[in-house]
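user: Kindly work through both lines:
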Amino acid sequence: MKNHKLIMTGIGQSEIRVEDIPDLGPEEVLLRVEACALCTWERYIYNGDEPAGFPFHGGHEIAGTVMACGKDVHLKEGTPAAVVSWARCNACNPCRRGFDNHCEAAEGHTPPGEVWGPEGFAEYIIVKHYEVFTLGDKVPLHMGVLAEPLSCVTRSIKRSCVQPGDTAVVIGAGLMGLLFLKVLQDRGIRVAVVQRSQSRRELAGRMGADLVVDPSAEDWEDRIRLFTGGRGAEALFYTAGGAPMLNRCLHLAAIGGSVLMYAPLYSDQPALEADPIHFRELSVTGSIRHDKQSVHEAVRLLGSGRLDLSDLNMEWADLASFDQAVKLANRDRDIHRVLLRWNNE
């Protein structure tokens, strides 16, 4: 049985490789990839915006169908599933302390002669049994690609300690910002979304935001304060905007509130305004990737069908036309994910 794989061989370069599918280990699962989302991370690597070694086999937001299982795995053939790569050793210090998203063995251990990467840009994929999460029939199979980003969101919300009845502000209404919006509202939290792009503001409104504001408007901070009765928001989630926006979050937080950094600033080193943290007794923290608990929680939530994500803009593309797919995603920022699959028709 053959497998078609999309391999990035350099900046702006890729090729399709055809390889035999190896025999399954006792705890492995073979899935046909029904959809694999083109994430920003993979685009940055392909565009040369993020340094990475080539060749690289990308694709970490995966939905597929179970085709075969190793002898110690009991999943029914034909089962729709999300795949969330989360190789964990469970032995290193971060794993034992509950930070398995920082597992010391999860990265940089590609066997000699193999291409590194999560391997979702392919016709088939072999993964460990604990990386497979059945979806049920309440959501379309291709929506399983959202399990991975949704698990990052559920972990971030947990770290913020926001409670039902609180008010939250989400900075940015790209895919991640919209997922924050939907999960927060599902938990009984009022949500204001701050977004410069008009089209993204309008979409956030259609997806249920209680307030949507334009940060380029002179009165946007006053509108947030009015929305919160003058007290500020109990939680603010920073996903975009740079150092100045991060400092505005500190000033807009309620006494005892939290500010969570989901996105990094990279080279933009802010002069962090520390006094609001002290005088308003704020908690400022970050969150990166997903952990075991957040993956389980996200897949259960996604599979329940409770989140209405039908307004997200998903565009399909053929894996064999990868360069055109990247150009489409680069060009149209209102596409939340380009979904890749191998078209063998």
